[in-house]
Design brief:
Elements lengths: L1 H11 L5 E16 H5 L7 E13 L5 E14 L5 E16 L3 H30 L12 H19 L4
Antiparallel strand pairs: 1-4, 2-3, 3-4
């Protein structure tokens, strides 16, 4: 009888989450060195702003998803606000994800998947800024949980604003 109890306990435990990166890719990349194009006089002290958005979609293969992170990195001169460079990167990954409950899949895709890809994005941004004539930009680690919460709050506000007033 002890075997049955152990067997029942083993069956009651959910299977471990499995995530495999099938592939990753640069979908779009743009770098504009505005400093060289237009020229900026005097001392240049960059003020760098990074904007991040994410998107995920199901693929035709069972349990496969494509996740795209979009990064917009703008550098302006602190002194006069003149633009120095603009880097836009869309970086994606294809993931095989098993044993994630349906209600947890959306946050998993938009938090864990971009977190797995981020070191590669950081390297690309560093290389592109260096190759573009600037010191390599080593992006700070991004809090994808906070980013996800901000997006959910933004969507809730947008839905609230779209509702007719009674």
């Amino acid at each position: 009888m002890a075997e049955n109890e152990n067997g029942a306990q083993a069956q009651a435990q959910p299977e471990a989450v499995k995530m495999q990166v099938i592939g990753q890719f640069t979908r779009d990349l743009s770098f504009e060195n505005i400093l060289v194009q237009k020229g900026v006089q005097g001392d240049v002290v960059p003020d760098i702003q990074v904007q991040v958005t994410m998107d995920a979609k199901k693929r035709s293969v069972e349990n496969q998803y494509e996740v795209i992170s979009k990064y917009k990195v703008e550098a302006k001169n602190k002194g006069g606000g003149e633009p120095l460079f603009l880097l836009e990167l869309e970086y994606g990954g294809v993931f095989q994800i098993n044993n994630v409950p349906e209600e947890q899949l959306h946050p998993f895709l938009l938090i864990e998947c971009p977190r797995m890809l981020f070191p590669f994005v950081r390297r690309i941004v560093s290389d592109i800024t260096r190759d573009g004539g600037f010191p390599p930009l080593n992006m700070e680690t991004i809090d994808f949980v906070a980013l996800y919460r901000q997006e959910i709050a933004r969507r809730a506000e947008a839905e609230k604003a779209d509702q007719p007033v009674s």
